Amino acid sequence: MLEITRLTVEHLTADCVTDCPAPHIAFAVRSDRNGAQLTDAELTVGDWSAKVTGDGQTGTTYKGPALLPFTTYSVQLAAKDDADETAAASMTFETGRMETPWKGQWITDGDYHFTEAKVSPVPMVFRREITTDKPIARARLYATAMGIYEVELNGKKLGDRYFAPGFTSYKSYLQYQTYDVTPFMTGHDTLTATVAGGWAVGSFVFTRKNRVTADRQALLAELRIEYEDGSVEVIGTDSSWQVTEDGPIRMADIYDGETYDATKETTGWHNAAPETLKITPAITAEYGAPVKAHEVMHPVAVTTAKDGEVIYDFGQNFAGVIRMKLNGKAGQVITVRHAEILNPDGTLNTTFLRTAKATATYTCRDGEQEYSPRFSYMGFRYAGVKGIDPKELEIEAVALYSDVAQHGGFHCSDEMLNKLQSNITWSAKSNFVDIPTDCPQRDERMGWTGDINVFAPTALYNFELSRFLEKWLRDVKAEQLPTGGLPNTVPVQGYGFPATMPEMAVDWWGDACVNVPWALYEATGNVDILRAMYPTMQKYVKACRFWAGFGIGKHRYIWHTPAVLHFGDWVAPDVPKMSQWQGRSKYTATASLCNTSGRLAKIARLLGKDEDAAQYETLSAKVADAYCSILTDGSGKAKDEFQTAYVLPLYLNMFPENVKAKAAENLVKLVEKNDYKIGTGFPGTPYILFALADSGHADTAFKMLLNTQCPSWLYEVRVGATTVWERWDGLDENGECPIGDDGTDQMISYNHYASGAVGAFLYRRVLGVEPVLPGYKLFKFAPLVGGGLTEADGTVGTPYGEIKAAWHIENGEMTAEITVPMGTACTVTLPGGVEQNLSGGSYTLTARV
Q1: Residue that finishes a domain, picked among 714, 742, 767
Q2: What is the torsion angle, in degrees rounded to the nearest 10, for the CA atoms of residue 685, residue 691, residue 693 and residue 696?
Q3: Element housing 527 (H / E)
Q4: How many domains does the structure of the chain reveal?
């Protein structure tokens, strides 16, 4: 039987509202017959239809008549396979405003002048009474804000998003949201919008800079009502709306939390005033993955600290908010603090939050009531509550992260590795909060490019991230400096470095503009993201090449600008100081230039830019030669020996063929001398196990992977981590924080996905699934046996459907099972040289180990 398992428009299976004039439509099919091939597929949208051939299954662009705004379109798909079995599916999508001029205008409270530094403004509340006297066929609210907002109709929240309109490079792009209010209109309605400071107006980055984008909050909205008689009424924001700051939400700040007074009625209403923004962004229908509520967690333990604070342990570190049900008295104040870890005496450890207060404060009314913060979120495992008898309180926690589908999974015979996989997944969820952040708890939560640069391949094994990453990459492109350098955080939003030094490019951080689109292309087959980012990549590599070009001879290809302008081997555990991490930058930066120029050459070839490709291939080869000639002795020995100095050139194939083996042996010696403990920082950590295993030292790779001594991935697991740490030495054996004066002001996050980049090794080598062609059109299934592991199984989501892979070893024989999605092919390599080529279907194979 032929079955259509997925049909999407702009990567969404439902509820798509788009302003894209040529949306992408994709689908996946499945058959219960091995070897089945799709022979015919036709997409129809209105009067337009298209035969889908080749790779069109992963994305066919609509090329019919111009789409009209405010319109619902039906997508029909008919498919047939080589046995003449057929299947059909349909879905709808909606167009948004499609650049229709807004009749509403930006409004604010003209009397509110926010001048206080390092805090967020009091939330503004807007309202409008609406009367309708005719039957309504369709009603949509289109809304956006300077700040973050929620809208209510007759006291009921619209939608399920948090932190709309989302975090973008506001000077360039601003999203609006669409709400279907048709079923909620009564004829006499009250529309209310609450706008907090958020990223645009509130305090942000660790310097707590506020009013970066606007001096105060503002709202832009239109209610578009289509009546059954065919008439249309548009009610937009203007000075007839009312506004006040005198509502129950007294404080809302990304870092500090939220203060809510349930005894307070909203008063002080007065007319809103038109607002002129300092910026003129393109205002577009939401194109990212909005933040929503996901897992709900309940306390696994409850203790009372010596000061009487009741500590609830939710058993998992995550990003989100608490949700309380309680019986209270008017004026009773409940305070909830949040922390990732406890001090040895059982109290909350909030030291590493730095200036972030991460506190929810709630003033009760009389009786039964519920409360959960709406305009802030915290990174925590523990919540400390004061002000209420625990018998009067029910508390749970809700994970908040972008609405990305988890489509991958890994499991094996080692439970510690399974816990590591869980930790990696939870760190990703915790830091996919509208943008890819570094950490969810302290006064940071910024879009550090270096973190997602190294983590993207692992992230894409675990999650479908097309909308999430494409949105962020749009901002990467917008934030690029005229000289080609890229800010270390995107969106910049008040952060100075390197915006204060606009000539600079920073290796392995700015590299995200090349590596993240490439990872997305490998996972999805979407060449459009490469095409869109190609000019950005070119400018960036040109900037990198410029700063590597001040030497003489081969030194012109060694990128060695002052260490303070690089992060180098960031948080490498074998040296204790930030200055030492940065001091390795000539190695990391030179390898970076080799990698980005070589990858850009591949991209240029894909895009048909052969002349460009030849230039980048030459550059990459010269940089690799310079690295080996100047930074090593020419025979595979680094002049400054540290793990990353070998890992990068081995993984990136920079060594000449005749010295590769010797370089790998030198890396093994370093690893053995370090008792198989990790010694790499951000640039080397994703690749060290590959560098070892792929050069004939799989035994060493497995010993490092399975090491439980500090520093190692499984040390964190052994001492109770539920997420990946920023620093390998975050806690000692006694659960204390031994970080000394390393130059980072005791920087430590216990929820930081960068080192979780090892997850790609779990999928690609241990499980054995790796793409050969983009989108897994062709992929390998080649399990790497080692470390005493006896089995592994997992799933990998692809545009064509789900890969299921499993293997187990018993009595010296491996039994492997693989499900190959219809429309793809798989090359299987099992121990002992057993090889087989498979098309779509499910298979079982065996081999002697």
Answers
A1: 767
A2: -160
A3: helix 527-547
A4: 5
Domain range for residue 639? Answer: 447-767
- What does residue 358 show for φ and ψ, rounded to 5 degrees? 45, 55
**Residues belonging to the active site:** 444, 726
- 727-739 in b/e burial notation, b at 16+ Cβ within 10 A? bbbbbeeeeebeb
Portion of the chain with pLDDT greater than 90, in percent: 94
How sure is the predictor about 486, in pLDDT bands with cuts at 50, 70 and 90? very high
Residue 680 inside a domain? The answer is yes
How many residues are listed for the chain in this entry?
849
Confidence check: pLDDT of 500 > 50? no
Q: What is the pLDDT of residue 497?
A: 60
Q: How confident is the model at residue 563 (pLDDT cuts 50, 70, 90)?
A: low
> What pLDDT score does 745 carry?
75
Band of pLDDT at residue 440, cut at 50, 70 and 90: very high
Same domain, 481 and 611: yes
What's the CA dihedral at 500, 503, 506, 507 to 10 degrees? 180
Which of 549, 547, 558, 541 lies closest to 632, judged by CA?
Answer: 558
Cβ partners under 8 Å of residue 427, min gap 6: 723, 724, 751, 752, 753, 756
Q: Is the pLDDT of residue 498 over 80?
A: no
Question: What is the rounded average pLDDT for all residues in the chain?
Answer: 96
End of a domain among 95, 115, 142?
Answer: 95
Helix (H) or strand (E) holding 528: helix 527-547
Vertex 488: Cα angle to 482 and 491 (nearest 5) = 80
